[in-house]
Amino acid sequence: MQIDKDQILQLLRSQGDDAKAQQADQALPGTVDTDQHGGLLSELGLDPVELISRLAGGGGAGGALGKLGGLLGN
């Protein structure tokens, strides 16, 4: 799944983890592919599956996927 780096940074900051957000800002590319960058996410202490799950409830592409799942009855 493709996730905009800003979504990840916002999530970390909303959890009060500014230090991890700063580290992620320096390490991650602008668009994060959870499959391709899974190892990098893990190094930052982020579980790609959990990240997708958390962002699916919010806005952006993740929110769109959550709405699509709802429409499909999932």
Number of spatially distinct domains: 1
Number of helices: 5
The strand order across the widest sheet is 1-2
- Taken in chain order, the helices and strands follow as EHHEHHH
Low-confidence stretches: 59-74
Q: Oligomerization state of this entry?
A: single chain
Main attributes of the structure:
single chain; 74 residues; mainly alpha; two-stranded antiparallel ribbon; 2 strands; 64% helix; disordered C terminus
Description of the structure:
By secondary structure, this protein is mainly alpha-helical. The chain has one domain. Helices cover 64% and strands 8% of the residues. It has a two-stranded antiparallel sheet with strand order 1-2. Helix 1 (5-14) runs antiparallel to helix 2 and helix 4 (48-56) packs across helix 5. The longest helix is centred in the last third of the chain and has 12 residues, at 60-71. The two termini are 18 Å apart. 15% of the residues are buried.
Topology:
Layout: E1 2-4, H1 5-14, H2 18-27, E2 31-33, H3 38-43, H4 48-56, H5 60-71
Antiparallel strand pairs: 1-2
